[in-house]
Write a structure and sequence with these properties.
4 strands; two-stranded antiparallel sheet; rod-shaped; single chain; 5 helices; alpha+beta
């Protein structure tokens, strides 16, 4: 005797079976929408290290390229900053490509600056899940 025959002999699909299937399907539908929601709430905005505060200067007065090294595309590096400001980059003949070759860098210690673009506020920018904390993004997706 097959399962279909057994089910038909016992009375078929009743109210209990329908309720049971619906109770199991509802959480699965919620989980699917939660997984899709991460595409919008966990976007990674453009960011770079917050420059080190310099005595007698506010950060707004110092050009960004003096405190943050550039990457291959001449954008500020996301996870590194110069240990000391590279004032010689302000000179007209600072370097050939606009970076301080061989200057000491360090990881971001004072946080990050996020650019408002496509993603204004995400869980990545709220909890600083970039650079060394990048591995924690998977925890945020749960």
């Amino acid at each position: 005797m097959s399962f279909v025959e057994l089910l038909a002999r016992l009375g078929g699909m009743g109210r209990f079976q329908v309720t049971y299937v619906a109770a199991l399907a509802f959480p699965l539908l919620m989980l699917a929408s939660h997984n899709l929601l991460q595409n919008f709430t966990a976007g990674i905005p453009e960011h770079h290290c917050r420059p080190r505060p310099v005595a007698n200067n506010s950060i707004g007065d110092i050009p960004l390229f003096v405190t943050i090294p550039s990457d291959d595309h001449h954008r500020p590096q996301r996870c590194r900053r110069y240990v000391e400001p590279q004032w010689h980059l302000l000179e007209t003949n600072g370097t050939a490509n606009g970076t301080a070759n061989g200057a000491a860098t360090e990881p971001c210690r004072d946080g990050w600056t996020y650019r408002d673009g496509v993603f204004a506020h995400t869980i990545i920018s709220e909890w600083d899940l970039v650079c060394e904390s990048k591995k924690l993004r998977q925890v945020a997706h749960m």
